[in-house]
Amino acid sequence: MFEDDQDIKAIRDGIKALCLKFPNEYWREKDRTRTYPVEFVKMLSEHGYLGCLIPEEYGGSGLTLRAAAVILEEIHRSGGNGAACHAQMYIMGTLLRHGSEEQKKRYLPGIAEGKLRLQAFGVTEPSSGTDTLALKTTARKDGDSYIINGQKVWTSRAEHSDLMLLLARTAKREDVEKRTDGLSVFIVDMRDALENGLTIRPIRTMLNHATTEVFFDELCVPQENLIGEEGKGFRYIIDGMNAERILIASECIGDSRWFIKKAVDYANERIVFERQIGKNQGIQFPIAQAHAATEAAALMTEKATLMYEAGKRPGAEANMAKLLASEASWKAAEACLQTHGGYGFAEEYDVERKYRETRLYQIAPISTNLILSYIAEHVLGLPRSY
Asked: How far apart are CA 13 and CA 20, in angstroms?
């Protein structure tokens, strides 16, 4: 990994200090009760970390994507879970790059200050899954408004967000030239919409991810909340998806480094048959392999980040970073659990919690198989497999 400059080092140190105020016991309790880490998110906001990508002219820190990646990596490396608030970073690009000046002035200062939360991203639907171009939620033009009807699923943090970035169909699939046309992006103010056409239902899952399904029934959204041009929304969210892959990869790297340290510390301390278990190659080798995989993934993530910051569209690099980092964190999780043996299943060691949390990234925000399909088709030139 490239050397941290003074600014990045200061961010790492600042996040580490903040995370010390939220020890494993805090995250363990949130996981046990499936409750949202309000206190943690509030403190991140108050210290300006959640507004890091917002330009200074709108009240943010005006930092780089690398800074955002470091913030999320260190949260996970400390034993926490940045999924409670990471969407505010990776969906920000759609508003920053394609929103109108009026939209930026209306929303960004409040988000930067922590008074507004932009945490919900309404894309996935029950019938389409990761086939985004097949989504069915519609936005019908009606005077100076759009009327939204449909359903989204796996919309995390909807209950804890003020604003949602929503992708909906404004033209029928059969009426557009290109498959990528006909989709539009809207900012939905959920404070006004709740029970006025918007219904949120929580989904209890194997980890504490504040996951919901969202229903739209004749929800009225002002025309001024349309981002960019009507019908061009899919292109707008692609940039955000590249940032998303990079930031999720950074979380996985943080997870992996947490698992590796946890495993090494335990292997050095645990005595069985009158010797440290860390002396056994059966313990050493999986941890060493996980470490090597993690450092390789960190390099690819760094490359994707630098390309993104240079204004390029690192689709292949961002996808490979997410693939490699999620595989590395899962390898590290397996090694850590195996090192701890039965104690790895005990809640008080936090291994099983982090094990469940990092397993998600084999599936979300895009599955490993779809990334492999993308690389096969768009990088290697193989025929499309789906």
From this structure: 11
